[in-house]
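W.,

You were right to be curious about this one. When I first looked at the sequence I had no strong expectations either way, so I just let the prediction run and decided to look at it fresh. Below is the sequence, 474 residues in total, followed by the output.
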Amino acid sequence: MNKESAGSVSTNLETNIRLLTQQFQASEDLHTRAFHYKGRQGCLLYLVSCTDKKKLQSDILQPLLQAQEGRIIDVLPVLNLTVLFDFKAASAAMLQGQCAILLDQTAEIVVADVCASAEQSVTAPHNEQTIRGSQEGFVDEIGKNMQLIQKRLKTTRFLHRQFTLGQESPTIVKLLYIENFADPAVIDKISERLVSHRDTMLKSPGQLMNRLEGSRLSLFPQLLLTERPDTTAAHLMEGRVVLLVDGSAFAVIMPATFFMFFQAADDFNERWWNGSVFRIFRMVSFMLGISMPSIYIAIVSKHFDILPIDLVFSLKASLENIPFSPLMEALFMTIVLDLLREAAIRLPQSIATTLSIVGGLVIGSEVVNANLVSTTMIVVISLTAVASFSVPSHEMRLAIRLISFPMMIAASLLGFTGIAFSFSFIFMHISKLETFGVPYFYPAAPFKPRRLLNAIVQLPGRVFGKRRPERGSS
């Protein structure tokens, strides 16, 4: 049982009922139920949409009517009971699915948990599929997500801090970590930013992510999102901190480094050779995704002389009747591809499949027949799309799409020199970027060869022996 600081609750029952009811602006969702307890008048207040009526009847109302002696908190068979002394805290508790118990001649409000939870079955992750890994994914209920993580972390050092954000619409947020594994300084920094949240309503977890990111102007994602409990547990064991938001089926992992976005769950379930090779493929795909259209533009615009003579004739033939510059071709096809991708995501699954087929066949063939783009550009954009799709993180895929645009412009103006300047700027930026004091490009900058090799290649444990949890750049 917890107690909060004194407020404005009086000993008059009618006054308390009226003031607590005013907190909900005469909402029809608010119901009351009068009762007598030990010769005194009492009242039960609850929100129908948030309350389990069967639990309210069996665990609250029936014991109150049958009790002969004792305090209310002693006769109710409910684990989560809280005594409050102000109406604002009581109304916030009712919005979380608790009922308020008022008693005449008592200047306190007892709130009991009778929340109605919509049971959501655990299914396989939709966006992070695996061949041999776990087939359980997070759901929208924060309590169920905690159970999925706790099932994989059977240690008493697994701790969490709970925050309630949003004054008008309280939302539960939990910060998870393993004691002596996670950096206390990182935990304190994250807690400070969560406490500083002053929005009246938390519309989505994206609001928190914007506050937690170290650089809001950077195109690179600084927080790793996952819907896999096994991936979350693995990062916790490596000393990272996890954020769960009620109503979201994703966990936010902090602090995130650049190389974490290229790791997949199958890397640790396959033989180390397979995991290593495909992780390297993903990093190569990142480089191709941001640079392949730029390389094509640079060659066609400035550097035809580096190609074999036979390939030059073939490329010139494909560009002969194209009225647009290579930059305009690349921008047009990239935007069309992004529009098709967005439409496939937003439409129902049955229509999205048809759209993908129609878009790929009709648009791809007809723009060539209409001499709007060359056949070589179609091949380049297709390979770029395939390369970006091989990156596991959706946030990093979005970054690839955005970064490729300025690189194409630089290649059009300066050729290979523009591409070199672009890559130099990118590497300088990610080398300077930090997340909660941890270098974003760690262990490449600062350079730690032993850890860098292990970040790129999934070597067997006997090569390096027992790995300690990572703390910052130490």
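Here's what jumped out at me. The radius of gyration is 29 Å. And, maybe more interesting for your project: The first strand starts at residue 2 and ends at 3.

Coffee later to discuss?

I.
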